[in-house]
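pipeline: protein-struct stage 2 | run 1193 | Pyridoxal-dependent decarboxylase
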Amino acid sequence: MSEPSEIQPAPHMTPEQFRQHGHEVVDWIADYWARVGSLPVRSTVAPGDVRAALPTAPPERGEPFADVLGDLDRVVVPGLTHWQHPGFFGYFPANTSGPSVLGDLVSAGLGVQGMSWVTSPAATELEQHVLDWFAELLGLPQSFRSSGTGGGIVQDSSSGANLVALLAALHRASGGATVRRGVEPERATVYVSAETHSSMEKAVRIAGLGSDAVRIVEVDGDLAMNPVALAARMERDVARGYTPVLVCATVGTTSTTAVDPLAAIGPICQKHGAWLHVDAAYAGVSAIVPELRGLQDGVDWADSYTTDAHKWLLTGFDATLFWVADRAALTGALAILPEYLRNAATDAGTVVDFRDWQVPLGRRFRALKLWFVLRWYGAEGLRAHIRGSVALAQELAAWAGADERFDVLRPHPLSLVCLTPRWPSGVDADVATMTLLERLNDGGEVFLTHTTVGGRAVLRVAVGAPTTTRAHVERVWTLLCEGHDWLAADFAAQAAEQAAARETERRRAEAESARAQSAEAEGARPQGVEAESAEAQTETEPEGTEPEGTATDLAGAPAEHP
């Protein structure tokens, strides 16, 4: 019998190697943060450039770690849009911080699965506690605390949170029937506004209702959901036999940060038994600042609420904070317990298993980075960050409001400012605005995005990166003004050239018309008319006589007849 071939051991990284290379990675990240402001904000690579820089085949043998770090600079960094750049004013902030990265590093190092309490009790209980802390800091109702009927969880995104809120709402509206028989798409209705994030309609599709179940409610002049219109739509649907399942109200819409009036919407939802879900993905964390908490007046009516710590609260993606007032509806929709997940703690009903609060089974220990961030900054440090961003945005809005080249969309209570450039008459305003946007983004110093309001292109300037200072906001304002002036001058020069061309064409046309008229007149006169007239005169007058009415003086010159 032949000897079995010797199996080579896998080249696992030893703790000492990890220590060495871990220091190198931390140094690389710190160096990246130090130099990110000198890089172009938006990647300049063309489609396919990154893949072209990579080998066509995977490595057969392990490579030195130095080569991996080297390829970060050679391949990866040039293909990045730098969301941590101080000149990043696009979308919404999506920032991390030192404590967040270190918390994520610990989570990755622990490598635990927090799907059930028993799989790592600390992963569940720390998360419950941190979410209770944040519920207090944001001024959310007591029903959202883990000590009551509800509680909080860290979801992967507000898109995911919107989906599970809808599933919980369907479960409640059907009395649990959706678990057994599925949804009745022809009967259920979901209410949004034209400004609601697209993830809500996506959730409706995923849930099996289909887009026909969505009712789009009119907005007011501030782009906030109109509660009178909502009530009228719900009344009509109920009269036709539909069941209003969920209303999604937004605190801080993606386009303009419009705020739906929760205090007016809540009683309407209660009247019809509809679930009120509040999507405060961007703006919700601002409630940590007491003077901004009024934007969420009426949140006590909410059945569920979501906000993203990974946008404006210095915590790396993914870290969506999600609360429900009635966790039984949520777990009723999502809980499923195969035998291989059964355990004594779960069977006793004394613990929370977060696998029943989300779509996937597995879950990372996300709460660690939130815990690190909150303990490093403290509530006051987080408030200082929010206040600083708002102050810079309001200063930018004041500059633009005093400038005849721009209009400022109001209201703008937070750190997003929407600007509509003014252009000369005769200029396609949307084309000009988008040209200005691309000119700024191509320059590499800043990155902005756009939206449309009332059918017109609008520039969005979102402040929030921890490295962004007043100097960076001054710079984006300077670039906006310079770009506007350059384009306006270019449009004026083009208009002058076009006017000159039109004048030249007008003169040419007039000259051509005059020549044509002259030629037409010449062509209309019969040939030999003058000769025939002269012959006729000679034949009718006696030789040597003068025409009637004339006389000849002694010098032979004609003289007037008296």
